[in-house]
Design brief:
It is a single chain. The chain is an alpha+beta fold. An eight-stranded mixed β-sheet has the order 2-3-4-1-5-8-7-6. It has three helices and eight strands. Strand 2 and strand 3 form a beta hairpin. It has one domain: 2,3-Dihydroxybiphenyl 1,2-Dioxygenase, domain 1, CATH 3.10.180. The two termini are 27 Å apart. Helices cover 19% and strands 34% of the residues. The protein binds cobalt (II) ion. Cobalt (II) ion (CO) binds next to strand 1 and strand 5. The site of cobalt (II) ion has 6 residues, from strand 1 and strand 5.
Length: 160
């Protein structure tokens, strides 16, 4: 189905600044990831994915796939890690929602210009060679949002 021709708009078309392309993953903070992985695999038919250590070993991340949905289980390995502090205050639960973007720097600039409070002004390394940045939950309905740019996101794409 072809789209009708678009009239030029004075507002910035979302695609021009690397708009959100989809859901990357939903992250859950837990004290121990493995029991929850077992529950998801045996109880919901999930498939265990890869895992890695981030933040100089301070955070263990385990991915679990449920059809098109990916969960990221966050297990802190140090008491001073932000996820450990999160668990202390709130207990286990939803930690963040991660959205795929093609141009993280452009998307951060766009969010900032729109008045969204940024936790990360510049991208930082995420799992699997991604670059990520967090947006403040106060600006987004109480939900911590991560923007995630995959390593191949801009390959072969014209930069604008
Ligand atoms: Co994440």
């Amino acid at each position: 189905m072809s789209e009708p021709p678009r009239q030029p708009s004075r507002s910035i078309p979302a695609a021009e600044v690397g708009a959100v392309g989809g859901l990357s993953h939903v992250a859950i903070a837990v004290r121990e990831a493995d029991p929850l992985v077992d529950t998801l695999v045996h109880g919901l038919g999930a498939v265990r994915g890869s895992e890695e250590l981030l933040d100089d070993g301070g955070l263990r991340v385990v991915f679990v796939h449920l059809g098109p949905v990916t969960l990221e289980l966050l297990e802190p390995r140090r008491e001073d890690h932000t996820v450990a502090k999160f668990l202390e205050v709130r207990g286990p639960g939803l930690h963040h929602v991660s959205l795929e973007v093609r141009d993280l720097v452009a998307q951060l600039a766009r969010a900032k210009a729109a008045g969204v409070r940024l936790i990360d002004e510049t991208p930082r390394p995420g799992a699997h060679g991604t670059r990520v940045a967090f947006l403040h939950p106060k600006s987004l309905g109480g939900v911590l949002v991560e923007l995630c740019e995959s390593p191949a996101a801009n390959e072969g794409e014209p930069r604008g």
